[in-house]
Amino acid sequence: MIYIDTNIFVYAIENHPKFGISCGRILQDVENERLEASCSVLVLVELINVIKKINTILSKEGRKGLSIKDNIEAVMSLPLVWIDLDFLVIERASSYAFDVNGVDYIHIASMEVNSINEILSADKDLDKAGVIKRIDPLNYTPIGV
Description:
Elements (H helix, E strand, L loop, with lengths): L1 E3 L1 H8 L6 H12 L5 E4 L1 H19 L7 H9 L4 E3 L3 H7 L8 H12 L4 E3 L12 E3 L10
Parallel strand pairs: 1-2, 1-4, 2-3, 4-5
Helix pairs in contact: 1-2, 1-3, 3-4, 5-6
């Protein structure tokens, strides 16, 4: 089982020039059940926030925004193992002193509490934690290849 960071979804949704194709492949493997993956429900919270920010930019450019509802429903329809934010995760996260964003503490704690040690993420800061292995989406090898 591997953990999927929020940026994988964001880059697939926005068709990011560098990461979009790789992130799309990852999500296709999840959808086709070729990749067993998990996420914290925090990913959904972060995704709503990011799409809202993208929509603000698109609106200023006079362009149509993305549907938060449709994107969240699409993500929730994937066969992911969802990790709830519970007191054990929060307590574990509060004990960290890694040089990463505090929100990433929650992702790392969610992984640790659920015995997951690999994360698919473009966020190089996660390498600083030293307790998990980050797999860059550009280095992801689709299953069966």
